[in-house]
Amino acid sequence: MTDPPRHRRVREPVQVYLDEADRSLLEELAARTGLPRAELLRRGLRRMADEVLTERAPGWSFDRLVGALGDDASLPSDLAARHDEPTPATSTTSAPS
Q1: Which of 60, 14, 19 lies closest to 38 in space, CA to CA?
Q2: Containing H/E element for 40?
Q3: I need a labelling partner for 22 at 20 to 30 A (CA). Which of 12, 32, 37, 72 fits?
């Protein structure tokens, strides 16, 4: 039986000119992490892409919270104003003694 063929990733060489400070930073990161310099540059590129290319409007996380408790009619409509009071969904009842 033969092993399935490995998928080869096409890689394109890129030349980067670094000043002394950036080169020292790259060397220090490579020494500390044990990763190749090229991998550190790839990871830096991906991290910056996550920050810059992700289109998130201010307050984007609020959309995740809206409706998080569902649409249970027993939930108070002024939950934010009374945030310290237990809701029917969170209150516990003790068993009768």
Answers
A1: 14
A2: helix 37-52
A3: 12
What is the rounded radius of gyration, in angstroms, for the C-alpha atoms of the chain?
27
Residue 69's closest CA among 80, 84, 59, 81? 80
Q: For 1-97, where are the alpha helices, taking DSSP H only?
A: 20-33, 37-52, 60-65
Residue 83 near residue 69, CB atoms below 8 Å: no
Per-residue pLDDT of the chain (97 residues; tens, 9 = 90+): 555 555 566 788 999 999 999 999 999 999 999 999 999 999 999 988 888 887 777 777 777 677 677 777 777 777 677 777 776 655 555 555 5
Token pair of 48, please? 């910056």
The pLDDT value recorded for residue 9 is 67
As a whole number of angstroms, the distance between CA 54 and CA 48 comes to 10
Contact between 39 and 47 under an 8 Å Cβ cutoff? The reply is no
